[in-house]
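sanity check this record:

:::
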Amino acid sequence: MEISTEVSESRVRQTRAAAERYRWSGSERDEAWRRRERGEAFPDSPEMLAARTARLIQRNGLPVEAALEATRTDALDQPQMYERILGVAKDLQSWSFLPRGARAARTVARICVAENGREIPIGTGFLVSPRLLLTNHHVLPDATAAASVIVEFDAQVTVDNTPDVSRRFVLAPEVFFAADSTLDFALVLVRPDADGRQAGDTFGWNRLSVQTGKLVIGEPVNIIGHPSGRLKEISIRENRLEARLDEFLHYQTDTEPGNSGSPVYNDQWEVTALHHSGVPRTDDQGRILRRDGQPWREGDGDDAVDWVSNEGVRISVILKHLAALPLDEARRAYLTEMGPESGLGAVTVPPPAPPMDERPAAEPGTLATTPRAGLPAAPGAFGGSRHVVFLHGRGQEEGVPEVLRRNWAAGLNGGLTRAGLPTIEPADVCFPYYAHRLLQAMRPVEALPHPPRGAVEAVAPAPGSTRRLYEQLIVEAAGRAGLPGAGPGSAEGLGDSVRRGLNWLADTTDLDRLFIAAVFADVAAYLDDQEVREAVLGCVLGEMPRTGRLVLVSHSLGTVVAMDLLTRLDPAVEVELLVTAGSPLGLDGVHRRLLTGGPRRPGRVTRWFNAWCPIDPVALGCPLGDRWTDGPEEVAVANPVGQAHDIDEYLAHPEVAQPIGAALHAAAPVAGAGAAAYGGATP
């Protein structure tokens, strides 16, 4: 059977199932309608209204000032307060609604199959990681079907309404393919393009969340797809969620066949569902009806159907299904790329790796999960005489270096695109990887990779000088964040001050206490324990270039390592640009323990640029210019609440990416015999 015919028949089966669900969920929908008639704009449960309101405010979906203005004049009970805030969020959209929608639209692709000498559009799909595409099971029912299709990005018109130049990719289901007919989803790996570039590095990808609170009944939904195989179209705003079932959502919006596999967004452009079917009107016998009231028959065409609603699969349900699949480590690693909010966990890290020349080659298309010292840049990258190095922070002990480097590059490419500058290839970046060396060098109590949930004490250093420094750093950071009476000299004991400090930092930044404690524990261990410091520096130095011009981009603990590293680099290396992001270098307890001996700008750095976020608990000592002699150029950025410390969020800001892009594309000397030599390689 031809794939297009199989897709058509499968879509009819899904349509009938959606119609049946629509019939038996009629009582909930009718109750929502009655509540709307009584004046309730969002006829949902108080619990869902509360969860939605909290998510909006915490993630900057609605300015706190607007929420306060909406509720300050009247005495409101909680449901009324939530309704008022949600009404403001529905009616008022910031200017970023449109560019964020345009960014989301780039992740959406048309899926076509070649049959009888022509390409037939069969559905829509969208990226949910740098290289995973989500669509419907009835669009890609099996790996054989997935291997025969073309995925076409930028199949759309330009701002001048002329056809854009599309980019075509093929899929690799033999490497990763997961699907379920009941939930009607298929998740498949996208092969890189001819230059080895991942689709997500060019078009971005949607960060899926397993959490609730993304949508309530009565709220608008927005859908981007390829109806009837046409160039990309969007349905926005004048649509609403009608009913929420255990596994599906019903909503009013305009879609057509070909929208199958489209993302269903809320107004903050978070994916709430995977669109998979229209809902037709049916008679008492369950027969699909035409618009003239007569039973629909095969051959009548989709335009003849009397459509009454649409149905999508809840994205949280799909994520929970994926989390329960019995996958091997290599395939589980692909799911990990979908990000922490997906709830899909991390890859388990095996024991320390053997030397590079003793490792077996990875199977084509798979991810290596063995920890490595790092990744060199591709030979000749940036002309061979200029080198870009990403220096990561803490908490990467379970990371896969290839994935980490790609995520950094994806964030930077987003910022470069917004700044109007050319993007980079992840493989052109040197990525030293020291996380496992840090863990090996720290004492067992300090190096627990999986402390019990909420057990902050488990990540604290053992009693001694490192423990004292750890506590001092937390108290100092909390004081800079505005905690009243914070400081070792307060009336309470230092232990009480540390607990208060962690609670204050967590409450004011919306980051987990355990995460904050772990960051400061690693910083303290690096600064206080010479064995730890030497292990990390030795690991990084082994991957650094020995000659040429250097652009060093560092994050979190990596900014501290970078400052020390500048005292050890080969004299033949010229540091054109140092970027520090989410850095603790402004804390007195940090900068006075650096190898430089204090807050003094390294003399060998031509340009230093620092980016910080006011709600990043690690960067609360910023701006650095107040304490550093001849300090850096600086910019404060607004990262999302809950992601304030994320490096990809920092790099996605055009004002952060701009100096990096400017340095990369400045005139460089002609590469000669002194081109880069990495990690012991012979020039």
User: Anything to note?
Assistant: The radius of gyration is 27 Å. Confidence is low (pLDDT under 50) at residues 346-371, 443-455, 488-494, 668-683. DSSP finds 20 helices and 21 strands in the chain.
